[in-house]
Amino acid sequence: xxxxxxxxxxxxxxxxxxxxxxxxxxxxxxxxxxxxxxxxxxxxxxxxxxxxxxxxxxxxxxxxxxxxxxxxxxxxxxxxxxxxxxxxxxxxxxxxxxxxxxxxxxxxxxxxxxxxxxxxxxxxxxxxxxxxxxxxxxxxxxxxxxxxxxxxxxxxxxxxxxxxxxxxxxxxxxxxxxxxxxxxxxxxxxxxxxxxxxxxxxxxxxxxxxxxxxxxxxxxxxxxxxxxxxxxxxxxxxxxxxxxxxxxxxxxxxxxxxxxxxxxxxxxxxxxxxxxxxxxxxxxxxxxxxxxxxxxxxxxxxxxxxxxxxxxxxxxxxxxxxxxxxxxxxxxxxxxxxxxxxxxxxxxxxxxxxxxxxxxxxxxxxxxxxxxxxxxxxxxxxxxxxxxxxxxxxxxxxxxxxxxxxxxxxxxxxxxxxxxxxxxxxxxxxxxxxxxxxxxxxxxxxxxxxxxxxxxxxxxxxxxxxxxxxxxxxxxxxxxxxxxxxxxxxxxxxxxxxxxxxxxxxxxxxxx
Length: 512
Known about the structure:
512 residues, Rossmann fold, seven-stranded mixed sheet, six-stranded antiparallel β-barrel, disordered N terminus, disordered C terminus
């Protein structure tokens, strides 16, 4: 007791329990942890902490687990799936609590907790809880912070085709996500990411490393103040890893891929390859398919799966019959670009939120829609085309643009079916090139999954009134150039002639 009195400052009560005298001041008081987790990545950290608790109870005295409530998922929200860490906590016989209504509001932490550890939890731990805990909070983040801050660093490391990544141990900030002090980090250049890794592969690679770093940080007393920042400063603008929402799994027929939106940089790979890469990381992708009949038009939600990229017509992954059919179509269209070919097509809708996503600068419109042509020319000039509301506008008065909450663009793609495998092969609808996108399976409006060729045969159609498919392999350059064999200076046109010329011009704005 004399040693204890000389090494600690005197307080109002000098008498302390005998058990406290056995702990080193370098490791602080025994840790009574509130562990907040959810997925497989957090399960590794919980198991490692429990193992350390059994081996060294002087370091970790107890572990309580907090999870978020189970949410209904699937079509019709009929399936309720519990987070994986709940079963791990029961298996380890640890106290388990659930956030009511998925929020910390009116939730109170047990008084004996002195540190909070959050791993892939997905909820911001409020300052009132961090201040209550003697050692605040820690977080295991699977990235080299400050790069890829956000809830989906593994996804964006793969989407952005990172060659290396790592793990960071940081304090929980009372102000915002992933802005705490980095206490420990994988040494640069980081851990190599194996080629063609999936999300499961990268999780299996980093989760044990993060768990080991967490236990090592606690054993070394890095959680004790004062905290020293050991993070690096990237030589490029910090990239973020926002939550992967349903809209992120929409096929980007016209807009940049998800990785390009994250970095703000143009993609060095073909657009169709980016779509196939997005499927490789995120799983099945969806789009809207336009189904036209003589009586009505419907937009069906289609989930596309088993997607891959075919770089050119000589690829061994391309069936010879499909390669021959594509070559034949290319030759026919080069010889007679105005020929009315019976080409099978699929018509898609890409949907974007007006306040979050920027509509493409130009896109192939429907030839029968003059309003859409006005929209194209306005976008080509960098202007926003006004949308006239017939109910509120009167002739002769200036029209006010109507703000749209979302934009919807129509895209047509030629498809080539493979009768043996049931797959279809699509040409890039905008950027051209020699590649093809293979889609093996489709699910329409939640019905049973079928071969893509069967779905295309039922819901696709052929071009009958205009060719509609441009097979040139050169990038589009003169999409809005007027179509005439005479010089523009020698042609005087009235309004009706201009409209007819524009209609003809629109027939030559082909997807390819």
